[in-house]
Please model this.
Amino acid sequence: MPRLYLSPPDLAGNELELLAEALASGWIAPLGPHVDAFEAEVGARVAMPYAVALSSGTAALHLALKVLDVGPGDEVWTATLTFAATANAVCYCGATPVFVDSERATWNLDPALLRDQLDAAAHAGKLPKAVIAVDLYGQCADLEPIAEACRRHGVVLIEDAAEALGATYRGRPAGSFGDLSILSFNGNKIITTSGGGMLLARVRAHAERARHLATQAREPAPHYEHREVGYNYRLSNMLAAIGRAQLRDLDRRVEKRRAIHDQYARALGDLPGWSFLTEAPHQRSTYWLTCATIDAAKARDTRDAIIRRLADRDIEARPVWKPMHLQPVFQHCRAIGGELASALFRDGICLPSGSQMTSADVERVVEAIRNGP
Ligand SMILES: *Cc1c(COP(=O)(O)O)cnc(C)c1O
Model:
């Protein structure tokens, strides 16, 4: 039986057609008509007026912080439960990440904790330069109170929607809540360009500045003129063509991942100690990954025993993200709480959720979980 991966790339079927068109036109790289169209289509989908296609989601995070002039001496607060890219980008700018605990409903940044701590920081005159809210596993953070807490203190909000393209919160698309937002088209995300990302902006000047920095900060001149340090972060026309083909298939993928989650939850929901991450009020999750926690005191098998058993049967499952405040590289950074994120890391499991999975594939995972050795 073929190996089941957590979230492998899924071909939509029309990639070759758009790629062939890109090749035939002679526009391979660097930019070109597919890049412009991909930016317009993603911007429209996410309801953000400006979009800049980039080489990765990490590059998009880096530039989001750069256009806000985040630098040494600045703090940027973000969720401790996230992928390292979120925190790494803060460090690229020489700024200091501060890690905030999760809330139970979405596993994302705790809005009440954020509000209280921002209030306290304002009182002490030590507000962060920006907050990065992360939308994990296909579901938005509770973005309304998060945005309100930021607005109250004039702190800029960046939304890391790398894992949530296609989700909505209060009917609005993931990626439309930040002053700046980012998406990823890495191979494991819901749509992929093999590698790529996008910066979304509400203000034209932010997008223009990001575009400038992403193209080596080249000044408009016949010769090569540079007034500041730039980056080589743009997406190629070829990869944008793949992205356009993938984007047309997004709705089907969301439905598919939701159905996979439903099948798991129906088949495993009665297992003692198991609790699935489900939609909180006002959320529509893509269920990019189906996740659950396994309470070791109640469950027959521990989380790690289940991951090992699945591995023996050629099925990839993983613990949820290891929180940043527990990572050796960020040990010196301040954490605001972190107990819940630590418990989610201890008990949480991510199950194979790729949009090409059949219901028989899901059943294979279910069988392996239910029927011990
Ligand atoms: C994947 C991911 C990123 C980084 O995206 P890349 O395109 O891989 O650089 C950032 N944040 C989160 C939460 C992610 O899951």
In short: The pocket of pyridoxal-5'-phosphate is lined by residues 56-58, 82-83, 85-86, 134, 160, 162-163, 184, 186, 197 (CB under 6 Å).
